[in-house]
Amino acid sequence: MRPATVAAGLLACAAVAMAAAALTSGDDGEDEPRRAAVASATPEPAAARNGREVWVVNGCGSCHAFAAAGAEGQVAPNLSATLKGMPASYIRESIVNPNATAAAGYSTGMMPEDYSERIPPAQLEQLVEFIRAGVRD
């Protein structure tokens, strides 16, 4: 097995573990201002709301910063900046074929390459719509 594949697998496992820990940890009240801001924002369309769930389940926020998700990952590109103005086709390709291009300042080989197998097509479209909606703001 290629070292990059092993590293990507370990990174994905760590991301899932971190997401699970975040979802099951106790509420200390520190995120209350962020929750209030999200709750008062314009309601998300159903596809984008479902896309947020796909985002969480796949641990995207453990690596990527993305304001729409309240994510502050520091390992991968900030999607709020790097995907602004990009079409759905580019976002989709970035998820299912992450080594096709890399954001400025980042190299390929960091993101798992099997999201096209892990994420069913309908959920992939929901994730793409969630990201698109988040970068339009």
Structure in a nutshell:
With 137 residues, this protein is mainly alpha-helical. The chain is built from seven helices and two strands; from the N terminus they run αααββαααα. Helix content is 55%, strand content 3%.
Stretches where pLDDT is under 50 for at least 5 consecutive residues are 1-41
Distance N terminus to C terminus?
A: 41 Å
- Total count of strands: 2
**How would you describe the shape?**
globular
The CATH architecture can be given as: Orthogonal Bundle
CATH topology: Cytochrome Bc1 Complex, Chain D, domain 2
Report on the structure:
The protein is built from 7 helices and 2 strands; from the N terminus they run αααββαααα. The protein is mainly α and 137 residues long. A hairpin with a 4-residue loop joins strand 1 and strand 2. The chain has one domain: Orthogonal Bundle (Cytochrome Bc1 Complex, Chain D, domain 2), CATH 1.10.760.
Blueprint (SSEs and pairs):
Blueprint: H1 3-24, H2 32-40, H3 46-57, E1 65-66, E2 71-72, H4 79-82, H5 88-96, H6 115-118, H7 121-136
Antiparallel strand pairs: 1-2
Helix pairs in contact: 3-7
Name a few traits of the molecule:
single chain, about 140 residues, mainly alpha, Cytochrome Bc1 Complex, Chain D, domain 2, about 55% helix
